[in-house]
Amino acid sequence: MNLASYGSWKSPVTSELIVAHSIGLSEVRIDGSNICWLESRPQEAGRSVVVRQSAGGVAEDFTPPPFNVRTRVHEYGGGAWTVAGGTLYFSHDSDQRLYRMGPDLGQPVALTPQGDWRYGDGVLDQRRARWVGVREDHTQSSREPVNAIVAIHTGGRSLEAGQVLAAGHDFYSSPRLSPDGRWLAYLAWDHPRMPWDGTMLYAQPLDGDGAPSGEPLVLGGSLEESVFQPEWAPDGSAVFFVSDRTGWWNLYRRGLDLSPADPIAPMPAEFGQAQWVLGMSTYAVAGRQRLVCSYISKGLGRLAVIDLASGTLTPIEAPYTDFSSVRADGDTVLFRAGSATTPASIVSVDLGSGKTTVVRKATTVADDPALAGYFTGGEPIEFPTEGGRTAFGLYYPASNPDYTAPEGERPPLLVNCHGGPTAAASTTLDLRVQFWTSRGISVLDVNYGGSTGYGREYRQRLRGNWGIVDVDDCVRGARFLAEKGLVDRNRSVITGSSAGGYTTLAALAFRDFFRGGASRYGVSHLAGLAEDTHKFESRYLDSLIGPYPERKDLYDARSPLLHAERLSVPVIFFQGDEDRVVPPNQTERMVDALRAKGTAVGYLLFSGERHGFRKAESIQRALDAELYFYAVNVFATGLRF
Question: What is the pTM of this model?
Fold first, then answer.
């Protein structure tokens, strides 16, 4: 056992190890006897590939290089592909066209023309040979993009941009065709609301050719009710959906006769999630009288089966606390899952036998016995915050079997602010967290007020208070750990990406607690964000701060860039040069202001990166640079890589 100060420990969990042996996993699908999922590969410059596994267990890439399965609808994408009958339909990143790939094709074939359209969240209308999904039209450069639900014929016709089935709202998602093809359910919402604020659920009748026929029925939603993920009952007589009308995202069923919606297994838990991307799924129909669902209770995810006849919810025992992309076909259930000690994995469960099979893991590093001792699990914590309220977080204590610290010394603390800000800290094993803890640096992942997973009231704490509530909760969480003697408050830093980067900069500028920080493509000028961002978030700040420009005073008062003189601790910035969500000029203005006043500043600009780094070399370099920056400027300890 080596004696060395916290923050100076040498660890085998290196940045090179992380990027060399890790992939991203998301969006699972069941197609007959095959299962499919999406892999994001940092080792291939972040290319996303659909992978298909046959009933025999053989997995192969479905999409060939150089195709990159990604849509830029809402900029954040999601739902870039769907599969049916062995044929794949997907959006290609470089041109955003929709393609078809099947057993009769050697290479993907384009279904849409070249142009400034984007496609996502599609389903197959097989009886009419059509893809039905969301289209975002950017062809009119003088106005904001136009969103609609469109149909595109999948073969035998000339290229087309799509037949409009639903239009008139600012945003659309989740198109779902009834089993007989006579109805189309979908969600819609308008500025200034975000989908977790208020959405409308419609059911549009279709004629024999699939064209709209008559006015759509309103099945749910309002200005103050967020509806999530509609799904049709097997007989087509009703639609299942998730609504937060009681203050919690719970499941409901409503018939086309417009009788009152029936709650399904109501409880103080979240069966829905913030719809930042398309194609999300937290539950699935698994037979005529059965749903399989995931939900979040007290910040931790669970999986269960609901018997619709009795309303009984029966938990499925699984060693996971984080679930997404839940799909089902009879007894077969497929989903993405993870836990504090388990990496993101594609998992299959047979409801008949109870057998659980791990299909694919994001990394096998955790399976290496030589590395297992260097991982520490996350501990859910609650702590007091401003106004006599309680906030939440995940605490990861510093741990390394090769080292012990001098008696009486406390470890440095890294406070992580998740993005969104309407999102939540993941409970899935993150090797980047272990990168810090195995070096003797504790981590606190804060679920500040405004985070999801704790009900609508908790989510709405951030209304009008972005830059206040989130900052207070991060400071109070760090102080809570310091007062318990678990960490060294004089060596506490704060870090975050995107909206978490803003919280980081606001905490450093407007509070006197943290000794340094790191902003990854974070917001520094709120008015600049309001004036120069994409459609999806262009009115987001109305609820987080206030209407712009009417409340420009609040935007200015909470912008770290305009108060750079108050920020005097070391900060390092990371930015992608193709970021459309937070343009590079935001970061560069902040860097210039701090350099002008002599503050210790680091700045790394990554070529070819957008909002969120996807390339292995970018991820690795940013992680190493952040550690080195803290070691030199904050922790004042010898650095061992």
Answer: 0.94
What pLDDT, in 10s, does the model give residues 507-540?
A: 999 999 999 999 999 999 999 889 888 899 999 9
Q: How far apart are CA 185 and CA 204, in angstroms?
A: 6
Q: Among the residues of 137-227, which ranges form H helices?
A: none
**What tokens were used for 635?**
């922790």
Residues 104, 154: contact at Cβ < 8 Å?
no
* Rg of the chain, C-alpha, whole Å: 24
Locate 133 and state its tokens.
Answer: 């999904």
Q: Which two tokens stand for residue 101?
A: 């790939």
- Tokens of residue 30, six digits: 């069941």
- d(CA 107, CA 110) in angstroms, rounded, equals 10
d(CA 483, CA 353): 49
Identify the pLDDT of residue 173.
98
Token pair in block for residue 372 = 């297992």
| Cα 466 off chain centre by | 19
As a whole number, mean pLDDT of residues 265-269 equals 97
Q: Are 428 and 344 in contact (CB under 8 A)?
A: yes
Lowest mean pLDDT of 139-148, 239-248, 551-560, name the range.
139-148
Separation in Å, CA 413 to CA 2, 378, 486: 21, 14, 9
Q: Among candidates 167, 275, 175, which has minimal Cα distance to 232?
A: 175
Residues 6+ apart with CB under 8 A from 546: 464, 554, 555
Angle between helices 499-510 and 469-483 (to 10 degrees): 70
User: Rounded to an integer, what distance in angstroms lies between the CA atom of residue 486 and that of residue 482?
Assistant: 6
